Amino acid sequence: MITVHAYLWAQPEHLDAYRDGLRALQASTLANDPGCLAYHFWESVTEPGAFVCVEAWTDRTALQHHLDAPHHRVGSAALDAHRARPADVRVYESVPTDL
Q: 67-79: per-residue pLDDT in tens?
């Protein structure tokens, strides 16, 4: 399994548009990417406009298909106009384990 943590920052004056763009990207990803196990955004309670997206993918191929998909390219490009700074994206290879 592949896990992605994407840290994102919106320009304060475009916060509502950025949130709407994140919602649209989430919906299109969940509807179009069969290798997506989870795709969630959260906004910081201490830093308005700071978000984290936590994604889970079946494998690297599924993640690459997502990154290459038209809905991702269009959604990401729409967010670019409202970003306060570049995203900090971290990709992990995850192995489920029992407690």
A: 999 999 999 999 9
